[in-house]
Amino acid sequence: MKSICLFSDGSCLGNPGAGGWAYILRYQNHQKEASGGETYTTNNKMELKAVIEGLKAIKEPCKINLYSDSNYVVKGINEWLNGWVMKNFKNVKNQDLWSEYLKYSKDHKITAFWVKGHDGHPENERCDELARAQAERINGC
């Protein structure tokens, strides 16, 4: 099973407001970046959307080390998700995105790691730059 790093970040202007997401996938010496956005969303949605879009780009089952500055994403994956599934996502926000996460994560072994945002982590800074640019583009800045 290949081992891949997935770096992700989301951005939102206004929260809710215009938002952007971005990811970097890295496998050995290969790297792929992608970003996108939505007109009216929240920061948590964009953080999770970045992860989902990164997973969609992976074509085979992999061991994935996921790096995010979002406690919501990291704790959601590592701590809360199993309980949410057991209670059928009752009273859980962003059920649609968490269900989509489950769909695209099922073939992988994922471990999520929290990184401090805006603290010089190169990949997190790059994802933040890409996600913010998408949010600003949508917002007309």
From TrEMBL:
EC number from the UniProt entry: 3.1.26.4
Record domain RNase H type-1: where: 1-136
Binding annotation for Mg(2+) 1: 9, 47, 69
Keywords linked to the UniProt accession: Cytoplasm, Endonuclease, Hydrolase, Magnesium, Metal-binding, Nuclease
Record has Hydrolase as a keyword: yes
Catalytic activity: Endonucleolytic cleavage to 5'-phosphomonoester
Cofactor: Mg(2+)
Gene Ontology CC: one annotated term: cytoplasm
Entries under InterPro entries matching the protein: RNase_H (IPR050092), RNaseH-like_sf (IPR012337), RNaseH_domain (IPR002156), RNaseH_sf (IPR036397), RNaseHI (IPR022892)
GO term, biological process aspect, one: DNA replication, removal of RNA primer
Purpose of the protein: Endonuclease that specifically degrades the RNA of RNA-DNA hybrids.
Family matches, as PANTHER family: RIBONUCLEASE H1
Family assignment from sequence similarity: Belongs to the RNase H family.
Protein name from the UniProt record: Ribonuclease H
